[in-house]
Amino acid sequence: MDFTNNVTDLGDILVVDDEASVVEVVSLYLKREGFRVRVARDGRQALTAVREQLPALVVLDLMLPEVDGLSILRALRGDTAVPNVPVIMLTARQQETDRIYGLELGADDYVTKPFSPAELVSRVKAVLRRSAGVMGSGGGSGQRPLNFSDLTIDPNTRLVTVRGQNVDLTATEFNLLWFMASNPRQVFKRDQLLEKVWGFSEYVDPSTVTVHIRRLREKIEADPSNPAWLLTVWGVGYKFDPG
Questions:
Q1: Cα 93 from Cα 79, distance rounded (Å)
Q2: Contact 70, 90 (CB under 8 A)
Q3: Closest C-alpha to 61, from 10, 32, 26
Q4: What is the model's pTM?
Q5: CA-CA distance, 103 to 91, in Å (whole number)?
Q6: What are the structural domains, with CATH classification, of the chain?
Q7: 168: Cα within 13 Å, side-chain hemisphere
Q8: How far is CA 174 from the centre of its chain?
Q9: In angstroms, rounded to a whole number, what is the distance separating the alpha carbons of residues 82 and 49?
């Protein structure tokens, strides 16, 4: 049965995995939902595919021949010629260290193998919504920029300026910062932030929030070890202090 007829084109997804069965099933589910799918079987093919035609999102397996997934992610996030294309990692359950490292490198989300293809498609849609800024946590057209002394957050251009310098954030990092800054001094638990910013909290390690907070501090705080804006409320969660 052909599931790809009469569906809306939602964008181009690059699936990077060397397991034929995974690629086949993931591609089928994505196409059925209206996505176009390209496939790369190893890391070198993936880098070439992204640079030749920027996809809307990359589904990236960490265990790849030639060049591993973490190296691919590091190359993408370090390449100024390539915008912050959203990345969802596929990881084995025992790869907790690699998952955390991948989030620190700038991955937007992860799904552990074995996984439900329907869940992966839901994650893809959620990440793309965050990237487009259509969720309430991500700001949107017509909303005014937030200004806090040396920090400006513009939801229309999705541009963050710190001490007069533009700061390059991933879609998830921007949405997390915007949501917290839009609710100054309010303390949020990690599962609350997962629900409000990521769009779900089930099946996601709360350490995902911790990693993104740490990355944001490294990018916007003058002293990440002694933050002025993104504060930890010990035993509870995090809050944004407008100063």
A1: 29
A2: no
A3: 26
A4: 0.73
A5: 12
A6: 11-131 (3.40.50.2300), 136-240 (1.10.10.10)
A7: 10
A8: 10
A9: 12
First to last CA, the chain: 59
Q: How far apart, in whole angstroms, are the C-alpha atoms of residue 183 and residue 87?
A: 27
Joined tokens for residue 42: 């190893």
Can you tell me which residue has the tokens 């329907």? 118
Q: Using an 8 Å Cβ cutoff, are 188 and 231 in contact?
A: no
The pair of three-digit structure tokens given for residue 59, joined into one six-digit string: 């589904």
Q: How far is CA 11 from the centre of its chain?
A: 17
- What is the four-CA torsion angle of 139, 145, 146, 148, rounded to 10 degrees? 150
Q: CA-to-CA distance for 200 and 113, rounded, in angstroms?
A: 19
Helices (H), the chain: 20-32, 43-52, 69-78, 96-105, 117-132, 171-182, 190-193, 207-220
Owner of token pair 């880098």: 47
Q: Give, for all 243 residues of the chain, the pLDDT tens digit.
A: 343 444 445 789 999 999 999 999 999 999 999 999 999 999 889 989 998 899 999 999 998 888 899 999 999 888 777 767 899 999 886 667 888 888 888 898 889 888 889 989 998 998 888 777 644 444 555 688 999 989 999 988 888 999 999 998 888 899 999 999 999 999 999 999 988 888 765 656 778 899 999 999 999 999 999 999 999 999 999 999 998
Provide the CA 210 distance to its chain's centre, in angstroms.
14
Separation between Cα atoms, residue 202 and residue 219, nearest integer Å: 28
Token pair 């991933």 is found at 170
